[in-house]
Amino acid sequence: MAPDKTLKLRALIRKARRFDILFALLGLMSLSIAILTLAALFVDMAVTGIPRLTPEFFTNFPSRRAAEAGILSSWVGSILVMMVTALCAVPLGIAGAIYLEEYARKNWLTAVIEINITNLAGVPSIIYGLLALGLFVYTFGLGQSILTAGLTLALLILPIVITATREALRSIPQHVREAAYACGASQWQVVNDHLLKYSTPGILTGVIIGMSRAIGETAPIITIGALTFIAFLPPAPGQLNIETGQTAGLFDWLWSPFTVMPIQIFNWTSRPDPRFHENAAAAAFVLVLMTLSMNAIAIWLRYRLRKNIKW
Amino acid sequence: MPSTITLPTNPPTLKASAKNLDFYYGDFKALKGINMPVYENKVTALIGPSGCGKSTFLRCFNRMHDLYPGHRYDGSIHLHPDEVDILHKDVDPIEVRMRISMVFQKPNPFPKSIFENVAYGLKVRGERNRTVLEDKVEAALKGAALWNEVKDRLDELAVNLSGGQQQRLCIARGLATDPEIILFDEPTSALDPIATGSIEELIGEIKHKVTILIVTHNMQQAARVSDYTAYMYLGELMEYGETNDIFMKPKRKETEDYITGRFG
After folding, report:
1. With respect to CATH, is domain A53-306 assigned 1.10.3720.10?
2. What is the rounded average pLDDT for all residues in chain A?
């Protein structure tokens, strides 16, 4: 028979353990609600959409007849817009973050900028759309083009890229910086030879999170006036225009009208004919796969790069 | 034993000298009027209790403080024979760091290959010739007694080496650029006794090529490796002299108390 003191201890531990179990159950429940909802949506979408996923679905333009309609213009549009977004947001975001983290003096101005960047990440995307409509479309006269859409989404994800890059830079221990400086490196050499290389995995994560958000954005794209029905592709460089007899320049596609996946999905969903809803489900399935594969690539790259970075 | 070391008969050459050196972190005066010579090809040890300013003093020599806001130097540290005041505001800290390299408390290799680590200082100095780089990396690794252990895996990551090997790699990195002075900031405090022994042995060997300034918490280490010792307390240089004299017959009571372990 154990002494009283031990028995009391055991009772106390049992009581403490009860909360462990309770919390674990609670956590499991909330988690399964989230996962099940997502899974149900995904399965429903897949079941409805997969029968429509024929090769023609990817190579056809939108059509009045649901069975002939495809997503060619929208997936090409989405990829081109994403390219512009990445090319603008990534260098700008990384440069901005490096400046703030490594070069700028820490004073009230940088504090204000820092708070604003964090806040910008929370601004509703429609606001970015309105800003882009006023600034890019009207003031700069860029039109309702791929360029405008890419720039708009770049603005939208810039705070995400900046924040992720700053976090990645901050996680590099100070002694690594000191080691590089002690070798006689200038500030730029420290940034270029060391900090950028060691923070790549973190930056990459931020970029992909941003891109995943941008690829699904609808509101700002509608606001700047993307078309919902497009039966042509942006001119490829060197492509002959039959009407004008001119070949397209290297960057002519930037000025082309366009549509993107979320807009195509939105357009099909809002039609009364249920056969278009199947198209919408199929397109949504493709969009989700695009996002998932982007994330998969990011995870793989991050894993590969992180293996070589230890302190 | 330190007492049996025979001192050179010819007087040592002056390599650097601190004159009336004050240093401030913001409003806090961390160093107070320090005057101290550093002799060429000798090991000078800085000892004293935590917070006495010995690391702060050491980091003046490669202007490490310039990386952080709120620092201020008063006074001078002149390098000889060219009489450059390395603390002068017109002297670029990069120039100072190119002449004076440093080994830190915690081994801090870059997460790059062994070769890249040692070659980095040379690359910063514009050396692009692969053969020259290879020769100098080999010489530096030999100088740091690491060559035999790593010669077959120069392309492997430096962070996978053991702690003692990493620290010797950091010494090789500091040696590769033929510095005039190497600063050691408690280089063995993160190492086991065996690795510590090999680092101390190394310091004894490389001092024939380079002037050494070392901060250490370990009194025996100071006695073992150094030719001159400076005892610092509360930002002041309390006593400086040949290591034998400091340890055998200190002039000040405070020094004696610290060395004999009655205080510190």
Report:
1. yes
2. 91
